[in-house]
Predict the 3D structure of the following.
Amino acid sequence: MRLVLSLLLLLVTAVPALGSVDCQSLATEANEKSAAFHPPEAHVVQGSGRLYFFSAPNSLCKIPAVFVISGDQLVVYSEQGNWYQVMYLNPKTLNVYEGWVEKTRLKYQGTVAPKQ
């Protein structure tokens, strides 16, 4: 019995908690490996409900207080899998928010480039 408890304790301390993830490391890796858009793209949010921002392209890295809604416009900088790295400028407060969003709710509007 002691051996079983000792092995269980060793296993619990050696293995990280299920569902835990290092969002900072994932974000750093994603920034290095993602496909960047040059020029950046303009997209508009579609669908109902909030589209939350994530600190890394992983569903466990949600930023609970940062979201956009249908009709909001985003600038897309890069892509990794089913995620876009985006920037949102709130037209009322002029606050800028950056992060990752799931790309299924975005509709392409064109590129963001200087007028010629």
